[in-house]
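Exercise 7. Given the encoded structure of a 285-residue chain, write a plausible sequence.
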């Protein structure tokens, strides 16, 4: 076996396999960027890794030498069997043909040798970014760390701080600490996307910032707050929760906030206090 595992990339034309626009396929081709993605994951020896969307295997090949178990989940039914055949001489590589959004981490891990602490990496289709992050961040067990190539504007939104928060930022930062590793030009991909990209690292928090018993209420309040983000918090919450504006004003003041603030100005601890106050006032209605 070669010390540098092969990829399908040089054979795509010969095999008649063009990237599928419907699957959002843009294949990374720059080896320096691939090495940077692997370095950003900061994997321990013999790490268990789930790779989402391996495509022709360019990131897969970079991960093979540094992992103890590599589970590659590929939706494209043209590429998945070719990857399985390509890496059959590496017994620690397991290719699963399927939708990563429909396969729980537990299922993927169990199919390939048992549940263990794991990491997630991938050059993912940009249209599944939000549901995919939620899929892993809310999973049990959650990954230790995730490193994804995503749209640069979305990466900035995820890593934002008050007063530039978004529903996506709150949803991610409740579970993980985001950091942008590097920005990528369209030319780093084949075919080049129409947008700039970025490598985003997410380090799982030891415990989510939202207690499990508050999660549904918390996100109900946050979604209401961001539902009409041009409005003040008092009015957006009243409209989103179907409560009198006077009542949401009382809850906001009790949480130590200004009713004239807007949703993007709040931190997660402030949202938690506000959720508690709204829940308490709703209970007394």
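Solution.
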């Amino acid at each position: 076996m070669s010390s540098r595992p092969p990829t399908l990339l040089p054979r795509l034309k010969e095999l008649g396999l063009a990237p599928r626009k419907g699957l959002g396929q843009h294949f990374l081709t720059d080896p320096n960027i691939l090495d940077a993605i692997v370095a950003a994951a900061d994997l321990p020896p013999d790490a268990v890794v789930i790779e989402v969307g391996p495509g022709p295997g360019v990131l897969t090949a970079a991960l093979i030498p540094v992992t103890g178990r590599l589970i590659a989940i590929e939706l494209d039914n043209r590429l998945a069997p070719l990857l399985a055949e390509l890496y059959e001489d590496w017994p620690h590589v397991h290719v699963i043909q399927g939708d990563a959004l429909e396969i729980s981490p537990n299922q993927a891990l169990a199919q390939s040798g048992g549940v263990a602490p794991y990491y997630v990496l991938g050059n993912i289709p940009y249209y599944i970014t939000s549901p995919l992050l939620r899929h892993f961040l809310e999973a049990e067990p959650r990954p230790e760390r995730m490193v994804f190539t995503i749209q640069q504007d979305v990466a900035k939104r995820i890593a934002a701080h008050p007063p530039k928060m978004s529903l996506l930022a709150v949803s991610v930062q409740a579970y993980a600490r985001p950091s942008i590793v590097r920005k990528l030009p369209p030319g780093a991909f084949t075919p080049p996307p129409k947008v700039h990209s970025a490598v985003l690292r997410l380090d799982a928090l030891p415990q989510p910032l939202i207690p499990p018993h508050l999660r549904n209420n918390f996100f109900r309040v946050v979604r209401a707050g961001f539902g009409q983000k041009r409005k003040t918090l008092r009015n957006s919450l009243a409209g989103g929760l179907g409560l009198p504006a006077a009542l949401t004003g009382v809850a906001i003041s009790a949480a130590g906030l200004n009713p004239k603030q807007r949703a993007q100005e709040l931190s997660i601890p402030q949202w938690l206090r506000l959720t508690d106050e709204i829940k308490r006032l709703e209970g007394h209605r």
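Remark. The chain has twelve helices and nine strands. Students should compare their own answers with the one above.
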